[in-house]
Amino acid sequence: MAHTYSIAEARDNLAKIVRESESGPVELTRRGRPVAVLVSLDEFERLQGRGENFWQRLVAFRRLADMERFGIDENVFDGVRDRDAGRKAPW
């Protein structure tokens, strides 16, 4: 954690600490022990899985990345995944 504040400090400096949380997580302590973390709304939504999912981000990355520059064919991973059902479980 970049910044740590006691709950008493947080109460006295809430506006400043909320601004700091927009740049990264802020840890809150009680009697010197971590009890909470304050994060930005964007980070909270990301942690909750809202917004773009993995596939949407991958498609966006492929659209922006110059794969040819790195010698990567767009179909490089086609057929790599094993489609076998796998082994039988003992239960």
CATH topology: YefM-like fold
From the alpha carbons, calculate the radius of gyration and give it in angstroms. 22 Å
Element-level helix/strand string: EHHEEHH
Which CATH class? Alpha Beta
Q: Quote the distance from N terminus to C terminus.
A: 44 Å
Helix content: 25-40%
Overall average pLDDT: 87
Question: What is the count of helical runs?
Answer: 4
Largest sheet: 3 strands, mixed
Please state roughly what percent of the residues sit in beta strands, choosing from under 5%, 5-15%, 15-25%, 25-35%, 35-45% or over 45%: 15-25%
Q: In what order do the strands lie side by side in the largest sheet? A: 1-2-3
* Structure classification: alpha+beta
User: How would you sum up the global shape?
Assistant: elongated
Number of E strands: 3
- Give unreliable regions as ranges: none
For the record, the count of structural domains works out to 1
By CATH, the architecture is named 3-Layer(aba) Sandwich
Superfamily (CATH H level) name? YefM-like domain
Please, could you describe this protein's structure?
- This protein has 91 residues and is α+β, with helices and mostly antiparallel strands.
- The chain has a single domain (1-69), classed as YefM-like domain (YefM-like fold).
- Helix content is 35%, strand content 16%.
- It contains four helices and three strands, in the order βααββαα.
- The chain has helices at residues 7-12, 14-21, 41-47, 54-64, and strands spanning 3-6, 26-30, 33-38.
- It has a three-stranded mixed beta sheet with strand order 1-2-3.
- Strand 2 and strand 3 form a beta hairpin.
- The longest helix has 11 residues, at 54-64.
- The mean pLDDT is 87.
